[in-house]
Design a protein that fits this description.
Elements: E1 12-21, E2 24-34, E3 39-43, H1 50-57, E4 65-70, E5 73-74, H2 79-85, E6 86-89, H3 101-111, H4 117-127, H5 143-154, E7 161-165, H6 173-188, E8 192-197, H7 200-206, E9 209-214, E10 217-222, H8 224-228, H9 245-260
Parallel strand pairs: 3-8, 3-9, 6-7, 7-8
Antiparallel strand pairs: 1-2, 1-4, 4-5, 9-10
Helix pairs in contact: 3-4, 5-6
Length: about 260
């Protein structure tokens, strides 16, 4: 399955994206599309360039070459319009531990000049299952609760696209499941979710479409079923077993390394 674009009215469209840091070429011509209202998972090893792509799309970093569009806006030519229509949640929860959960939400709502910040905060607390902890300082929250609050804060202003960079990094299994439920609800409500992750089971569980970034380019992209077709047929012994995304990833990346050597 190739990485060529397939969606003409994509929420995110990337063509020929290149970025180097000095002599280090991180992105060597990246192309992909993200369909509106979908969950798109970008997979790659540490240092593959996933966060670099997110930072470029969020207008935080300038590429060396290529074109990028988010919600129809050119990221380089129309950065203000892009920022108004997106939200970014980084690898670590950006919450104020001194404030309560409700105070964190109200603060962001006021900064974004949202009407009725208290009502917005209460609605998000209920949506993310944090209403009972609304009056507690965030310092007392578990990792999963902090991450849910962080994502709730990023939704203030109703962004059309949300970038989640390693959203379950460092969370325990229960916290990861909580965040997975939140991500699925976002997509069900029509929000486009751009997800980077090293957890292959996360992409397998959530993503409508998956792309693998390796050595600066997208080497494959497609649905999970399309990627499975790239894997050798299951050997029939007692029960034919479908390959996991982890097996597909390791097989594809491993074959790429052999070809490069």
């Amino acid at each position: 399955m190739t990485a060529s674009p397939q969606h003409t009215d994509a929420a995110v469209a990337v063509r020929g994206l290149r970025k180097s840091y000095g002599e280090l070429r991180v992105l060597k011509g990246v192309d992909f599309d993200v369909a509106r209202g979908s969950i798109f998972a970008l997979l790659g090893s540490n240092g593959a360039g996933k966060t670099t792509i997110v930072r470029i799309l969020a207008t935080l970093l300038k590429p060396d070459d290529g074109t990028t569009r988010v919600n129809g806006f050119d990221v380089q030519a129309q950065p203000a319009q892009v920022r108004e229509s997106i939200s970014l949640t980084g690898q670590f929860a950006a919450v104020d531990e001194i404030l309560t959960g409700r105070e964190n939400l109200i603060m962001i709502a006021e900064l974004r000049h949202v009407t009725s910040p208290g009502a917005v905060a209460d609605a998000l607390l209920a949506q993310f299952g944090l209403d009972e902890a609304a009056g507690r300082r965030v310092a007392t929250y578990s990792g999963g609760m902090r991450r849910r609050l962080d994502i709730a804060m990023s939704l203030i202003g109703n962004p059309q696209v949300i970038f989640l960079d390693e959203p379950t990094n460092g969370l325990d299994p229960e916290g990861r499941l909580d965040v997975w439920q939140v991500i699925q609800r976002l997509a069900d409500s029509g929000t486009t979710v751009f997800l980077t992750t090293q957890y292959l089971d996360e992409a397998e569980k959530l993503a409508d479409r998956i792309a693998i970034l390796h050595e600066g380019t997208i080497i494959v992209s497609g649905t999970l079923e399309e990627l499975r077709k790239l894997f050798p047929p299951a050997k029939v012994e007692y029960v034919a077993r479908q390959p996991s995304l982890e097996e597909i990833f390791l097989a594809i990346v491993g074959s790429g390394r052999k070809q490069a050597s």
